[in-house]
Model the fold of this input.
Amino acid sequence: MSYAYLFKYIIIGDTGVGKSCLLLQFTDKRFQPVHDLTIGVEFGARMITIDGKQIKLQIWDTAGQEAFRSITRSYYRGAAGALLVYDITRRETFNHLTTWLEDARQHSNSNMVIMLIGNKSDLDSRREVKKEEGEAFAREHGLVFMETSARTAANVEEAFINTAKEIYEKIQEGVFDINNEANGIKIGQQLPPTNSSISGSGNQGGQTNGGCC
Amino acid sequence: MSSLYANLKRRVDSVVNPSILSLESFASPILPTSSGGRGSLRPKFQYSRPVFLQLWTSDELRASADHNVRPIIVPRDIDVLPFQTGYAECVNSGKSEWNEDQAGFCRKVLSHPSEPFTELPYTYFGIFDGHAGVGAALAAANQFHHILHEKLVDIIEMLLPDSDNIPTEKKSMIFQYPLSFQKTVTKEELIIGALESAFAEMDAMLAEDRTKYRNAGGCTALVTLFIGGKMYVSNAGDSRAVLCQRKDGVAFPTPFSFDHTPDTERERLMTTGKLNPALMANDYVAMEYTKRPSKRDLGQRTLYKEGSMKGWAYKTLTPNDLKMPLVTGNGKRSRLLGTIGVTRGFGDHDLRALGSGILIKPFLSCHPEVISRDLTTVVSIPDENNEDGDYGVLIMATDGLWDVADPEAVSNTVFKTLDKYPTEKHRYTMVAQELVAKSRGRVNSSGHWRLADVEAAATVDDISVICIPVYQYYKQWVEWEKENQEKKRKHEEELQNRTESMSSVEIALDDTDEVALSDSLKETNLEETPDEKTTKENEDIPERTEEDTKEDTKPAKKKGKGKKGSSSSSSSTC
Done:
């Protein structure tokens, strides 16, 4: 499918806060209770519509472990949006937000839209971080805030789409230099509707090559 | 094997039924267009990353080739690669649309067609650095292991663990040469030969594909085969394998391959040029001078080298000496025919020299240099402080890594990283990732890639790294061998018991039953001479016949198997 814009996102935050699960819920609409540790980076993509325009989100899901921090830093550069995630049932993941934010601000382009996400809202009985605390942190640092649940899908769509709306508005205001791909925004190719196969997602093409064993 | 057939079927289908082409059409708009005259042909393999990375969608492929960020990709599921082997890669900074490196691995078991429990597992890893397109590297990553497997199957009878004990008359049956031509051939030579001939066949396959598929370009090939407790590293090109070990806590590298560049292969190239001047079409001269001669030097004497000369000699300069030298430049910057900087590998059948337009392929070689290591002779007990012992960690990487990292630095990084992650299952993946990260460096404010510690330029090339803990292979091999011996022993015991009980039953059988009669005759004959050697032969006979019939039902018969089959059927008529 052709798109008007492609926005690049990066998902960051401590290990185990549910970054990969948020991505899976958003792209595949499913929840995987046991998820392997992410090593390096994984990619997801989905098409959304804003203001009647098709927008493709390309999402980079990063490893949260401290060991990967220096490599993850190099991925901020090309992102237009970031989801900074903490786990409402683990206080320390909230306490680390400042470090994450400093990292993101230092290594990204200044216009990057950052969405603060308190994940695992379905586990209210085990909550360690009040919603008000998240809101206060977001207000203080000029972020958008939302509590989500990758398990129940609550607010997951909204988190990704609201971030896109902010980016879209910034484009309309002329804040983003959309001709520089390093800003994480790409203008879609003006293709005739018949040639729409270019960005067909979910194609299992790689498997047909067979490879081995 | 099945995927080979699937590919073959697809190729046949696409000729018979061109509509099959639509299967791959999704990728074609984003594939690089061929610069060759046969741009209308489709590529043989659509662009993809190594299968074990599991980047299935075109979105993932697109994201992985982000030239601005150059993400470091590691296997999503680290258990896919054997022996906890690590892998990491990253795309170039924009010199080509796609990552032109490719990688593959394969684990298979070679089994004897007629003898149960005589099996031999092997594992192969390959890394291919493509140039002038993604086609050749993709073909190698998808097909080389099938070719290698065929070559190993061809020599299976000589490779299997017990073949050292094959009596001489059987051996001569295998070779079928007149006695005067017989040579003693070792297993090692057979495996090296299998690798060498597989390289030749891969290159020939690319030559054959030229008329059927889009111009594939070329690629280097670095292949490591683990078989029978030994490690064989074969290289054609400028990727490199280095074994990293440590002694008393100090890391040190041992090279397991040598680069093939115009500089390192000067002698071979100049000899080729000297013996076949027609290949240079009057445009080049196969000589090396201490100083490149110019017009005003004509008639003067200068030091020169030609062909396989090791030293320098004087000659008087003639107009012929003013032509472009076959090899120009030095080291990594050297060029063959002013065009290419790597002199061995697959493909490049259509590559022409810049300027003159002559074909380069006759100067290139697909022949690998094979270096082996017998792990059974390593005396080392890996311990907590040194889990890899003297077996070491084998790093295979494309020149993207080595351009900015020397083997010493690499082996230091290997052990520093392993020490950082002493117990993690993905520690070798972390090593590969760390090595790629170091050579890739980071972008500075003006958009240039720089190394982290020094302000030197980082590599702008594709980088791929395979990190193999050799001891993990050896451990598995020893365990497997033990188990196999045990299984074999049990099987032989069972056979022995069955033979004893069956022979007493068969004697009582109806005499009109011909098959049973001949069988019982055999058994009774053996009963009469319970000599150990004949008993062993007898054990073989029923098994062979069984396997033989199995073989006949298979559509594609292997050469070796067929031969064995015919010999066993003749033995069963006794």
DSSP finds seven helices and seven strands in chain A.
